[in-house]
Design a protein that fits this description.
Elements: H1 7-16, E1 19-22, H2 25-30, E2 44-48, H3 51-63, E3 68-71, E4 86-89, E5 97-101, E6 106-109, H4 115-122, E7 127-128, H5 141-147, H6 154-157, E8 164-170, E9 176-179, H7 194-216, E10 254-261, E11 263-264, E12 270-276, H8 279-289, E13 296-301, H9 302-309, H10 315-321, E14 328-334, H11 339-355, E15 369-373, H12 376-387, H13 389-393, E16 401-402, H14 416-429, E17 434-439, E18 444-451, H15 456-475, H16 494-498, H17 500-513, H18 563-568, H19 586-591, H20 598-609, H21 621-628, H22 635-639, H23 646-661, H24 665-671, H25 673-680, H26 684-687, H27 696-704, H28 734-737, E19 759-763, H29 766-771, H30 773-785, E20 789-792, H31 807-811, H32 815-834, E21 839-841, H33 844-847, H34 853-857, H35 861-869, E22 870-872, H36 873-882, E23 895-900, H37 903-907, H38 912-918, E24 924-928, H39 947-956, H40 958-964, E25 970-973, H41 976-986, H42 993-998
Parallel strand pairs: 2-4, 3-4, 19-20, 19-21, 21-22, 23-24, 23-25
Antiparallel strand pairs: 1-2, 5-6, 6-10, 7-11, 8-9, 8-10, 12-14, 12-15, 13-14, 13-17, 16-18, 17-18
Helix pairs in contact: 1-3, 7-17, 8-14, 14-15, 32-35, 36-38, 40-41
Bound molecules: flavin-adenine dinucleotide and iron/sulfur cluster (2 copies).
Length: 1001
């Protein structure tokens, strides 16, 4: 693939508009996919800063004979957001609220605003845009309008179409035009105006096709296929010309602003989780349940429940509302203004389930009933599981994946049970299976059969399944395109579903708006075959290259020892583009650049390892740029629904680059810190000169790339030397513990009666050892005070160099050196590992690497066992507390503690214990700082090329929260980098938990 296919277009755009213009192959590659199975390389990508820039870009594209593809979050499932066009990304800059009329319950927004961002801004006014789609955290209003998206509460609120008042668009002739409510006589448009002519033609078309529309448009609420000819029928007194643009998938014009109808926020709700012993029965019950007028009836089936149980963040939620082993659950939600009415309906729901023959006391298929869910926090958590439904399904690691193409059909409720049964049979006939979820109340069920689209036989099965499924749906007078749109996947079937007369009418709509095919050609009309593999992400000839990898990827299929399969886990659903909640992906939250999100990186990696970005792409500058702002926070590992672990993948990229170019000076200084530290402490004044001698910081920026704006950690002589204060040097062998001395003597010897249960190994990491020994001292003091026999892990060999987890080496891709350190540490810890003695560490990123990277680096029993024994300091204390073994007397401390969690604590579910342990301090009020990454992220914050993003990440939430904290509040942060960032950004000292506890002994 050449770097620039259209040099003139690129040049004109670069000089003609403000905004980002990218024609390089990495950027184009990142915009070549949406959440469908298609891939089409765009010509170039533009993120205009203003609407005028967007208009200019469209004009330039038209003049250069290149089509235009508008894009929001790129989360479409049907291929409507891929094309060989100039992509205009609205999400980066064109995302403002232009007007808010609280009284009139309406607002005007630019198309790139994300639904959740909009609703966050509306919440203080008691309003929301109620089309609550699953992808609300990253889907844009422009995309929702393009697809006529439908939310879980569509029973109450309708689709996007019912909630849009008007749409302004740039049309193919460059004209800006408003589309909105109009009178059937079109008297508001001057007779000679182009809009009058366009609207008249559209109404004439509507009148001509009225009978056909009445006969062929499905009568279900969920119909988003084709153009909305039903909006143009004669005799309607609610004519709204915007409706023809809604659901048009960017094929008729470029939306510049959307006027939205807003609704009052929902009040308290009551949810009933109806448990069924058989999927069929759940489907059959939906038609009865909707009579109780719920605002949503959502399905989750057994497979989803089982898969969700395997995912750490979802497990606790399921435990709270799933009873027994149901085959399907319908989540029925009541949201009337009068909450007593909701409770009454919940009771009626229980009675209905009883009438249908369900009881908890029964055995077999009729065991079931309703679990009432009234706690709003649990309701929100369940919504999170439900909206992650598709992603949960996609978490399977095989080459075959659930594929969306019949996932969206909607049938009248009375046929739902039979339809799902018959479709399951169709799947079985073609050797596959599907998992069902979504909007039972609207008759629109999502199902994705598992197929491997690299195989011809599975592609053939896909066509056969589609044809059989759509034939069934047609017979039920249902809709083949019920929610996600047409794109490439369903447009081909319009002829079969709507008939050729209506499809010709659709073509006339397109021709009337866009005769030259400027906007997103080949979607809705004139579409390619949906199974044309030339348009597939896994197209003909798609195969992994022979890439050398250093870590263990064997859990996945594909080349690079499974690296390819791990990379391919990204299905482009865009969950990593969320801006609030969770901690993924901090740099994107600052830059809003597709490059800086896990999806962008995964796409670049996928293209690189399959040879689509040229030779040596893995170690190229383009890839280094792609990875540069990844702070290795590991949030994706936990929060990406399919578990894409980009921090680990970044190690491979850095290793590949180092293998090709060697390690740059900065990486050497960072990575090899544990190696030179024992010598550096002999001359701390020399090492610290960089921050004292004028010009030295500037020089370090020039020579090594350390930002002159950052101070470096201060070297000292009195480093931690494996001795717990008040005690002698610890024996390195646990055998000796049980045979010598007395713990109580404080002499460092221990009572013979102590057994392994009371022993713990303190792992002194490089950062705390050399720069903040007070934390290790404090941890030793706390553990000793609590009655534990504390051993400090020491090298088994006689080298003077202390142990190290290898983290600094990993952070620069020095995998061999990291392995060497890890093996050395494993050898030193072997006697403790054998006896199952916990290994406790203070620096989350170090101790947690024993659970994550080390087992992927060193394949041994010891490494696996250590993964189970390695605990953060607070995890150890919390576990001991839970087991009733922790005897720690702490002084009362009236006041507040504000806690910031290290990213790796969050990624490994190890943040809760910090709060648990802090709460052991009497009278201390513990509050969590709702923060993402601190932004420092190891060496990231020191880089001259990354410091701005680092500071901006800190400013997202952590630093403002610390500044706001009362002077006497204790700021707790267990990560070395986090404490450094807090200090640099606010001037306040944050403490490791160990010191907070030690001060209160
Ligand atoms: C896991 C998952 C769950 C989903 N759940 C739902 C759901 O619950 N309900 C639902 O309805 N959909 C759902 N979808 C589909 C998708 O998320 C929605 O359709 C969403 O509204 C698309 O928004 P977007 O910003 O990503 O749009 P994009 O994919 O970027 O664009 C969608 C279409 O709109 C067009 N478009 C975008 N901006 C403009 C503009 N300025 N002018 C003209 N055309 C424009 C594009 O060209 C494209 O054709 C889901 C998808 C996934 C992956
Ligand atoms: S990286 Fe994960 S969260 Fe992001 S788009 Fe891919 S699968 Fe979704
Ligand atoms: S490790 Fe963190 S910064 Fe990197 S991709 Fe994952 S979430 Fe984003």
């Amino acid at each position: 693939m050449a770097d620039t296919l259209r040099p003139v277009l690129e040049r004109r755009l670069k000089s003609g508009i403000a905004g980002d213009v990218s024609f390089d192959r990495f950027t184009r590659g990142r915009y070549a996919t949406d959440a469908s199975h298609y891939q089409i390389m765009p010509v170039g990508v533009v993120a205009p800063r203003t609407m005028d820039d967007a208009a200019r870009a469209i004009a330039i594209a038209r003049e250069e004979g290149v089509s235009v593809l508008a894009r929001g979050g790129g989360t479409s499932q049907c291929g409507q957001t891929v094309n060989a066009s100039l992509v205009i990304d609205c999400s980066k800059y064109l995302n403002r609220i232009l007007e808010l009329d609280v009284e009139g319950k309406r607002c005007v927004v630019e198309p790139g605003i994300v639904l959740d961002d909009l609703n966050r801004a509306l919440k203080p006014h008691g309003l929301w845009f109620p089309v609550d789609i699953s992808t609300a955290s990253r889907a844009t209003i422009g995309g929702m309008t393009g697809n006529n998206s439908c939310g879980a509460r569509s029973l109450r609120y309708g689709n996007t179409r019912e909630n849009v008042i008007s749409v302004n668009a740039i049309l193919s002739d460059g004209r800006a035009q408003a589309f909105g409510p109009a009178s059937p006589s079109l008297s508001e448009f001057p007779p000679s105006s182009p809009m009058h002519a366009l609207a008249s033609d559209l109404l004439a078309l509507g009148a001509r096709e009225a009978d056909e529309v009445a006969a062929r448009f499905p009568k279900v609420q969920r119909r988003v296929g084709g153009y909305n000819l039903d909006a143009l029928l004669p005799g309607r007194n609610d004519l709204n010309l915007a409706h023809i643009l809604i659901g048009s998938e960017g094929t008729l014009g470029f939306t510049t602003q959307v006027e939205l109808k807003l609704s009052p926020l929902l009040g308290r709700r009551a949810v009933g989780a109806c448990h069924f012993g058989r999927f069929y029965d759940a489907m059959d019950a939906a038609q009865h349940i909707v009579r109780l007028k719920p605002i949503g009836v959502e399905l989750i089936d057994r497979t989803m429940i089982e898969l969700a149980r395997e995912i750490a963040i979802f497990r606790p939620t399921l435990e709270q509302f799933v009873r027994g082993a149901p085959d399907a659950i319908l989540l029925v939600e009541f949201g009337e203004d009068d909450h007593d009415e909701n409770l009454r309906r919940l009771k009626q729901l229980s009675a209905l389930m009883g009438d249908l023959g369900y009881a908890w006391t029964k055995d077999g298929l009729k065991q079931g009933g309703v679990v009432d869910i009234l706690d709003p926090a649990l309701q929100a958590a369940i919504t999170e599981v439900r909206t992650s439904g598709l992603n949960i399904m996609m978490s399977m690691k095989d080459e075959g994946k659930p594929v969306s193409f019949v996932e969206d059909c909607a049938v009248p409720l009375e046929h739902l049970a039979e339809y799902t049964l018959r479709l399951t049979d169709v799947f079985e006939k073609h050797g596959t299976r599907g998992t069902w979820y979504a909007h039972a109340g609207a008759g629109c069920l999502h199902v994705r059969p598992v197929l491997n689209l690299r195989l011809d036989k599975d592609v053939k099965a896909m066509r056969a399944i589609a044809e059989e499924a759509f034939a069934m749906v047609r017979a039920y007078k249902g809709s083949h395109s019920g929610e996600h749109g047409d794109g490439i996947v369903r447009s081909e079937f319009h002829e079969f579903m709507f008939g050729s007369k209506l499809v010709r009418a659709f073509e006339q709509v397109k021709a009337r708006f866009d005769p030259d095919g400027l906007f997103n050609p080949g979607k809705i009309v004139h579409a390619p075959k949906f199974d044309d593999r030339a348009n597939f992400r896994f197209g003909p000839g798609y195969r992994g290259e022979d890439v050398a990898t250093r870590l263990d990827w064997s859990a996945w299929p594909g080349s690079g020892g499974g690296f390819q399969g791990a990379v391919e886990m990204c299905n482009n659903n865009g969950a990593c583009r969320k801006i609030e909640g969770g901690v993924m992906c901090p740099s994107y939250r600052v830059t809003r650049d597709e490059r800086d999100v896990t999806r962008g990186r995964a796409n670049s990696l996928r293209l690189a390892v399959t040879g689509q970005l040229g030779p040596d792409a893995l170690s190229s500058d383009g890839m280094a740029e792609t990875m540069k702002l990844c702070v290795s926070c590991k949030a994706c590992r936990r929060e990406c629904p399919t578990g894409v672990d980009m921090a680990r993948m970044k190690i491979e990229v850095q290793a590949a680059r180092a293998a090709r170019f060697g390690f740059p000076l900065r990486d050497r200084l960072v990575g090899w810190l544990p190696r030179y530290a024992p010598y550096a402490i002999a001359f701390p004044w020399l090492m610290n000169a960089r921050d004292i001698v004028p010009g030295a910081a500037w020089l370090s920026e020039r020579l090594a790339g350390f930002s002159a704006r950052r101070s470096l950690p201060q070297w000292r002589r009195d480093v931690f030397r494996d001795v717990i204060p008040g005690r002698g040097r610890e024996p390195a062998n646990p055998e000796s513990i049980t045979t010598t001395g007395s713990m109580d003597s404080g002499s460092g010897t221990v009572a013979p009666s102590r057994n392994d249960e009371h022993q713990v190994v303190l792992f002194a990491d490089t950062f705390n050892r050399y720069f903040e020994r007070e934390n290790l001292d404090a941890a030793g003091a706390v553990l000793t005070a609590a009655g534990y026999i504390v051993q400090v892990a020491q090298p088994a060999d006689d080298r003077k160099r202390p142990l190290c987890c290898g983290r600094t080496f990993l952070s620069v891709g020095a995998v061999d050196q990291a392995r060497e350190e890890a093996e050395r540490t494993l050898a030193a810890l072997a006697p403790f590992i054998d006896r199952g003695i916990p290994v406790v560490g203070l620096e989350p990123s170090c101790i947690l690497s024993f659970r994550d990277e080390i087992p992927a680096l060193v394949k041994s029993d010891a490494a696996d066992k250590l993964a189970g024994l390695a605990l953060t300091f607070e995890e150890f204390l919390a576990l001991e507390h839970k087991a009733g073994r922790l005897d720690l007397k702490l002084k009362s401390t009236p006041g507040r503690a504000l806690v910031h969690g290290h990213c790796h604590q969050k990624a490994f579910d190890a943040f809760g214990p910090v709060q648990t342990v802090l709460k052991l301090i009497p009278d201390l009020k513990v509050e969590t700082i709702e923060s993402s990454c601190c932004g420092m992220a190891g060496a990231f914050g020191y880089g001259a090329d990354t410091i701005d993003v680092s500071l901006a990440i800190g400013e997202l939430s952590l630093l403002p929260a610390v500044r706001k904290a009362p002077d006497d509040a204790i700021i707790v942060a267990d990560g070395t980098s986090c404490r450094h960032q807090i200090h640099d950004g606010t001037g306040r000292e944050a403490l490791h938990l160990a010191r907070v506890l030690a001060d209160r002994l």
